[in-house]
Each structure stands twice: as C-alpha cells, then as structure tokens.
Amino acid sequence: MSARDFFPARMTWRACREASLRCQGCDLWKNGTQTVFGEGPMGADLFFVGEQPGLEEDKAGRPFVGPAGRVLDEAMAAAGLDRDKAYVTNVVKHFKWEPRGKRKLHKKPGGREIAACLPWLEKEIELVKPDVLVPMGATAAKALLGSAFRVSVERGHDVPSRWAAHTVATVHPSSILRQATSEDRARELARFTEDLRVVARLLR
Known about the structure:
Elements (H helix, E strand, L loop, with lengths): L12 H8 L25 E5 L4 H6 L6 H13 L6 E5 L6 E4 L2 E4 L4 H18 L3 E4 L2 H8 L5 H4 L3 E2 L6 E3 L4 H5 L4 H22 L1
Helix pairs in contact: 3-8
C-alpha cells in the first residue's frame, strides 16, 4: 500500500491535500497528529522539499513553521528570496517520532515510509511545476535524485533532474540548529545562505 491508493479521482492540489488527510499508506498516520501537506502558490517558481514535519509542524498541520522553518526564513531573506512566493513541503507527510520521557523526539523515516509517501510529493511537483527545486537534506535529495547523491559533495550546484529546469540540493536547516557552538551555527548558516543565493540567481 502507498499514497497512490488514496489518490482522489480528480487530481487537483486541493483534492490531493484533502485526500492526504485520510492517507494510511504507511503506519506513520497512527502516531502523527495529522497529515502535513505542502503549501504555497500554484505555479510557484521555487519549490523546497524537506524530510518530514517536526513537532511544531505536526501540531500546526503546516510545513516549516518550527525552528527549522525559522532558519529557512532567515536564510531566504538574506538571499533575497520571498517565502510567500515559494512552495514548501516534505517527502514524508507525517511526523515520525520516538518517546523520550514526555518528549517526542524526531526519528528518521525508513525506506518503506519514504517510498509509500513519495507519490504525494511527485504529484505536488507535477501540479506546481516549479523552475527551481531545492531538496534539503539527504532524505529529500536521495528520494528525488537517487541513492548515490551526496549533499555534502554536490550541495549548491545546479544538477540535472527530471523534476524541474534547475535542481539545487542543500542541507536541511535543522542541521544548522544541531551545530555544537554558536560559531559553528553562524558558519553553517552562512553556507546555507550561499546555497540559496545560487537559487536566487537561477530565478532571475
């Protein structure tokens, strides 16, 4: 079973979003608060893809509204990009977590979960038709560009893909938050912002 088993009869963005709320293509729906589908204007030139919703996204039902989203907003603004004009989503639409006391800690989605949810992402890209696609982090990059793709090697470069005229992979903004020191965070935020400046130049 996968997301395809829950596709609506009429493949509009709104119909897909509503159908995704009932998706049980993998087991993550059992523990996630709700499906977190992508959001942004149809026909957006710029399309960001992360791994999965975090705790705040799980509660809000919206992508990139938590700490990683705030890092993304800061870097986009510094690179001259407008978040309101971009489409943002994740490969996996439910929050995968494991309990740690009373806390819910992020747990990396597995291959079965990624494969089951990928049809939603493919349909989002098909409906939005972006000019520049930005997979953020290894999960998104490998899902869209193949298992051999290495973000650490090819980040910030315009690479060929079947998804958009331009594809620029970069790190996930949550990786910046995990840096050990403020100096490390500042350095990695600057590198992330520089990757987004590449994106900005491609959009001109």
